[in-house]
Write a structure and sequence with these properties.
946 residues; alpha+beta; 6-stranded antiparallel sheet; 5-stranded antiparallel sheet; 28 helices; binds adenosine-5'-diphosphate; binds magnesium ion
């Protein structure tokens, strides 16, 4: 398409170029021919003056040669549009001279006069003149031709194009006829009733010059057709060539053939006609085809045109709709006449009806008074011829109904001859845009205020890390103070910024959001803990517009957090290491805290307890009351109180065992929710201990009573001893009286015997007391024997065999009565354990030869002791014998042994038997520190087991 469109243009350019070549060539031809002829005249070269040496042929006169040179020069200069004034004068002068010469010559012929112009040049050479006078004058037809050509060149580029075309055409015709005359030897044609006819080269130059003249202006007239690339040009060129070259050629051939009798005249004419017919038919057919294809092309082009016109109309309509849509309304204004034409849209903006007639005053009146001067100034600038005529303005319009609008106008003034002739433009209602702009501006201002006065360190930076906004706090915190940082680069402000911050900025710019906490030395040199965040900003989506840096000094907060953490850890430590169970419940009585003591007491790990209702740890029968109690307590507002009276509260272990507790409860209110914390203690042990203490106290009271009675008995016995001695002495003295009757002597002997019994009783009483209180050397085998003797009847009754292994003598310093009781207690228990008989093993031996301690082993083959009960048998009041037992035997035993620095150990297997091993240390003075032994043995005893 593009090449097809350019093709004609290219070939037309080629045609124009060849036309220009023609013009230059013809003018040069004229000049050279003129010069050649002059040379011929000067040097009498007749060939140059008249190249055809045939009859009736003529010279070219010197005047004609000169005229040709002048015409050639004029055409040469005028072949292009003349630039310089001097050249113009020169070319026109040449033409005018030729015109003058031609006209004068014509006048000479017309009036039969000789004004001598024919012999101005080359007068002396004109003596060669062989032709009929007048000497040196060129032919009349030549004069006419010169007049016409001179006129044509003078008038070239004048508006009368037709005329300047008519002259050369006429000359060309004359020259053509002349040349034909010469060619065919038809004298009539080149010497029309005259003696001095046109020379052959004169005719040639005329033909050349007139063609050159015709082609010199290819923009108009015949030349424009000839250079045209259209069908008219093509046809014209073809026909002209055919007519002007082929026809004369054929005619000449026909003439020659006839002259030289090659072909007879009839055949020659027939051939001529035939060839002419062929040529013209071919030409016609060709032309017709060309015209038809041209026609088709035109039809297609017309269709195309119609199509594009339709498209154009549609486009125009769409454009109109589009302008309507965006609210663009056109207007025109003639600044000269003041005529103003507004589209209805513009009128609507001014609040005018669509049919209103408007003028410039109405236009100005509608503009807001504040903007009027500005608009007028803009218009004036657009009308100034010095400018480019552009007009652009945004202003307010007060509509007739009082509503204010913002409009944007844009137009252009067209100038002609330095004067504004028309101003075209469009107006757009931009009220909405302005409102949005205003809104945006307000928002921006608000944002700016928000950032500036934000109570945080905030900075907004662009992609080059230049400040866009920053808060006052930022300036303070970074030590920038009052400096104006907007637009300045952050890195210029802080050249020593750590590399990792720069890296963070880079990542922020790449679209990442980063945050961290770190230590930072501020401008004041103090160590701070800061939290920072980097966010990308901007809405382009692909690349961020920059970053926002947020910095917060969290030094204080961190400190407070650390303190709180320490506080919490401390509290957690206290709670977990507390001896008492600590349980917290929320408002719904669900457990939230369950410490280690609680885990132990309730035998339930905290992981299982937390989240469960507190009820699970309270025996079912107390649950209702307990809940009521807690809710009542919640309503009192008292923070702490002891729950119930002591001894009335019970807990429930995970394994279902109930146990007495002592508890206090406290409450706090957090976020309008009440939290209760119960601190409780398992008092099972304490209760039992209290019970034991009571019984032990009773036992102690009893033993104290016994001891007191013992002391009393000893005192009495001692007191009785003195009078008893006196009575014994008195009775002895009475016995020595020989005068005593037999009867009296018998009574005296009886009194002495009874007195001896009393003395024995007091002595025994005193001895027993001493034995139970005073340490002495005690033979352990004898002591064991004594105890066995006491229980001998029970051995027999229950069928118990005895297995003894004791040395004869093994003493230890101790309180005999107490050790007897110890042995007696253990042996009694062994007998109780073998109701259906068995063997009682008794061993006595020394523990260690060095310290003189002695052990007594008492074993039985009885029922044995359950392992679970083994640690309880030494507890006071613990018995498995019900009413028959007191549970005090072993307890007293241990108490005694502890006092005597002895120990007792037990080994037992259920249903196999039990072995008690008693170890007695020698408490002779200087041997041992009994207190320390005491402690040692105490521990050994309690840890002993079977
Ligand atoms: P009591 O004899 O009055 O029951 P003790 O203090 O003497 O009180 O003994 C406590 C308990 O120790 C006994 O009830 C018994 O269950 C257990 N016990 C003591 N010695 C033996 C033993 N040799 N064999 C089996 N059980 C024994
Ligand atoms: Mg007992």
């Amino acid at each position: 398409m593009a090449s097809a469109a350019q093709q004609p243009e290219l070939s037309e350019r080629a045609h124009r170029y060849s036309a220009a070549v023609w013009v230059s060539a013809t003018s040069l031809f004229a000049i050279l021919m003129g010069l050649a002829v002059l040379v011929g005249w000067q040097f009498r070269i007749s060939f140059l003056k008249n190249p055809l040496p045939m009859a009736h042929s003529s010279f070219m006169t010197p005047n004609a040669a000169l005229c040709f040179i002048l015409l050639g020069l004029s055409l040469w200069v005028q072949r292009k549009r003349i630039r310089g004034r001097l050249l113009w004068w020169f070319s026109k002068g040449c033409a005018a001279f030729v015109l003058l010469f031609g006209t004068l010559t014509v006048l000479e012929y017309a009036f039969g006069i000789d004004i001598g112009i024919d012999r101005i040049f080359f007068r002396h050479r004109l003596s060669d003149w062989t032709l009929a006078p007048p000497v040196g004058r060129y032919a009349l037809i030549t004069a006419v031709a010169f007049t016409l050509l001179g006129m044509a060149l003078l008038l070239l580029d004048r508006p009368k194009q037709r005329l300047s075309e008519f002259f050369p055409l006429t000359v060309a015709f004359i020259a053509f006829v002349n040349i034909l005359g010469y060619l065919y030897g038809a004298r009539f044609l080149y010497a029309i009733g005259s003696t001095n006819n046109i020379a052959i080269h004169t005719a040639s130059v005329f033909l050349a010059l007139s063609i050159g003249l015709l082609l010199s202006r290819p923009d108009a007239g015949i030349a424009s057709i000839l250079v045209s690339d259209d069908v008219d040009g093509t046809l014209a060129r073809r026909f002209l060539a055919a007519i002007l070259i082929l026809l004369p050629g054929l005619g000449w051939l026909r003439l020659q053939s006839e002259r030289h009798s090659i072909i007879e005249p009839a055949l020659g004419t027939a051939l001529l006609v035939c060839i002419s017919v062929v040529i013209f038919v071919t030409l016609t057919a060709n032309s017709a085809r060309l015209l038809r294809s041209e026609n088709q092309r035109r039809q297609t082009a017309e269709q195309e045109l119609r199509k594009s016109e339709r498209q154009f109309r549609e486009l125009a309509e769409r454009l109109r709709q589009a302008t309507d849509l965006v609210g663009l309304s056109p207007y025109t204004w003639d600044p000269q006449s003041g005529a103003l034409q507004w589209d209805p849209g513009v009128k609507a903006m001014w609040g005018l009806p669509p049919d209103a007639v408007v003028n410039h005053e109405m236009f100005l009146a509608g503009i807001h008074p504040g903007d009027r001067a500005y608009v007028e100034e803009r218009i004036a600038r657009s009308l100034a011829p010095a400018g480019d005529g552009a007009y652009e303005a945004e202003y307010r319009v007060n509509r007739a109904d009082g509503v204010q609008h913002w409009v944007s106008a844009c137009g252009r003034t067209t100038f002609a001859d330095g004067k504004p002739v028309i101003h075209l433009g469009v107006v757009l209602d931009i009220t909405d845009r302005k409102r949005i702009e205003e809104e945006v501006r307000k928002n921006r201002d608000r944002l700016e205020m928000f950032i500036r006065y934000a109570p945080a360190s905030l900075a907004m930076l662009d992609r080059e890390m230049r400040y866009v906004r920053c808060s006052t706090r930022w300036l303070q915190d970074t030590g920038l103070g009052e400096r104006d940082v907007l637009g300045k680069c952050h890195y210029d402000m802080f050249p020593l910024l750590p590399a990792h911050w720069k890296e963070a900025h880079r990542r922020g710019l790449a679209g990442e959001t980063l945050r961290d906490e770190e230590e930072w030395v501020a401008a004041d040199g103090k160590q701070h803990m800061i939290r920072w965040e980097i966010h990308p900003w901007g809405d382009s989506g692909v690349e961020s517009g920059g970053i926002i840096i947020f910095m917060e000094d969290i030094t204080e907060r961190k400190r407070a957090e650390a303190k709180l953490k320490a506080e919490q850890d401390r509290l957690a430590g206290i709670i977990s290491s507390a001896m008492d169970a600590i349980i917290s419940v929320d408002e719904n009585q669900r457990i939230t805290v369950f410490n280690r003591a609680a885990e132990e007491i309730f035998r339930c790990p905290a992981s299982r307890a937390i989240g469960r209702p507190l009820d699970d740890f309270i025996p079912a029968r107390f649950r209702g009351a307990h809940r009521e109690h807690i809710s009542r307590f919640g309503n009192t507002g008292v923070t702490t109180r002891t729950m119930y009276r002591p001894g009335t509260l019970y807990g429930l272990r995970a394994d279902g065992e109930e146990f007495p507790i002592e508890a206090s409860i406290s409450q706090v209110e957090i976020d309008e929710k009440k939290l209760f914390t119960v601190i409780l203690r398992d008092i099972t042990e304490r209760k039992r201990a209290e019970e034991q203490r009571k019984q032990a106290e009773a036992a102690l009271v009893n033993s104290e009573k016994l001891a007191a009675m013992g002391r009393l008995a000893a005192t009495i016995a001692h007191e009785i001893n003195n009078p008893l001695e006196a009575v014994t002495n008195a009775l002895y003295l009475m016995g020595s009286d020989l005068a005593l009757s037999t009867h009296s002597r018998h009574h005296l002997t009886m009194a002495e015997r009874e007195l001896m019994r009393v003395a024995h009783l007091t002595k025994k009483t005193l001895g027993f007391y001493r034995e139970t209180t005073t340490p002495g050397k005690v033979s352990i085998p004898s002591l064991v024997e004594e105890v066995i003797e006491v229980y001998a009847p029970r051995f027999l009754r229950q069928g118990i065999k005895l297995n003894k292994c004791m040395p004869k003598q093994l003493s230890v310093t101790t309180v005999a009565g107490e050790i007897r009781q110890v042995i007696s207690n253990v042996v009694a228990n062994a007998i109780d354990a073998m109701p259906n008989g068995g063997t009682l093993h008794l061993r006595v031996g020394s523990c260690s030869a060095r310290d003189g301690s002695v052990h007594i082993v008492i074993g039985d083959t009885g029922v044995g002791i359950e392992p679970a009960l083994r640690h309880k048998i030494f507890d006071p009041l613990f018995t498995t014998k019900g009413k028959l037992g007191t549970g005090l035997g072993l307890w007293v035993t241990r108490e005694i042994l502890t006092r005597q620095a002895g120990t007792i150990r037990v080994r037992s297997r259920v249903k196999k038997g039990t072995v008690f091993t008693i170890c007695l240390s020698d408490s002779a003075p200087g041997k041992k520190d009994p207190a320390s032994l005491d402690r040692l043995h105490g521990i050994a005893t309690s840890s002993s087991g079977g």
